[in-house]
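Q: What changes when flavin mononucleotide is included in the input?
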Amino acid sequence: MCFYRSFIRPLLFRFDPEQSHYLAHEVIAKYLPLIASFAKKFIYQRDDLQTVFFGKTLSNPIGLAAGFDKNGDLVHALKYLGFGYAEIGSISAQSHEGNPEPRLWRLPADNALINWLGLNSEGAITIAEKLATSKFSLPVGINIVKSNKPDIKSDTAVEDLLFTFRTIRHLPILYVVVNISCVNTPDGILQETNILASFLESIDRENPNKLPILIKLSEDGNDELIEKIVEIGKQFSIAGYICGNTSRQRPPLKTEKHIVDGIENGGLSGPPIKQLVLPLCRKVYQLKTPDQIIISNGGIANGQDAYDYIRAGSSLVQLYTALVYEGPSLVRNICEELSSLLRRDNLTLSQAVGVGCSKRASVS
Ligand SMILES: Cc1cc2nc3c(=O)[nH]c(=O)nc-3n(C[C@H](O)[C@H](O)[C@H](O)COP(=O)(O)O)c2cc1C
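A: The predicted holo structure follows.
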């Protein structure tokens, strides 16, 4: 019997989804010593899933996806949920309260969420100051995004992103992600690839510590857009890509149609989007250069899901929604299952990356 699913989840699910999110935050942040005493229960102990990412050894390839700890409040505690690394953000230059509530919905029949948060952020300066005095319990990546103000566009959009980058670049972080794929703002996913190109060109000069830069891609982008972005990524030698984000699409769901239709706007996450993100991951694996890496997220809820993404070309994976439904033992369970799948197929983690893809197309 799973204690979280039987007792904690029913309690949390009595609250409004956003309220229970902040309740979970408080528990994780405040009751760290107690959580730490359970650490053995939640942390995968073997070293067969250790992986080296840009020179840093991660205890396992399962990370916390962006959005759960938007403002960097939990970096001291996230290790105790078993993650090998965590992504903080999205962080924008300007603080923003996000869209009006309600803006987060559960679809329990699908173990899914729809969110229309709209990039609520405390703003880069506040978060960077907080992170500068925080004790990181695990390696941390930072996800940056253009401020959610539609009047910030073109050159000012590049300046806005650069401001955030300059504000966080001195922190002891593993990587920086540029989120160009949020579906929950009036801007939507970035179509003007020249903004991305200008930003990456400037970053080349603004990155003295040579922090690895990744781009977060959307499964909602068409093939032409994805190809263009990967081409730009090659031109500026970026470190890699995060495949996918929440989706505006509504693949077949078990949740009743009138409930889904009643939620007008928002990005879907959880198991139903895996079928959308896996093809994106395979596509990017074919397009990218061999030294660029892929981190994937989208409906990862068990070891088989993680293994599917790794076989599709991902070196690391991330999750958010499954944590809400499965609780703190999720990551350890995923690691155990992933480890046994690798043993079954007689592969190491690094050998498994991309084995499920057809032979790589020759890349110029
Ligand atoms: C409530 C919520 C908020 C999110 N906020 C962000 C965000 O600020 N920045 C971002 O890049 N992705 C954000 N995401 C997307 C996740 O990082 C992830 O890409 C997506 O949820 C798919 O993974 P999952 O199916 O494991 O949840 C958010 C997702 C959820 C559910």
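Observations recorded in class: The two ends are 53 Å apart (CA to CA).
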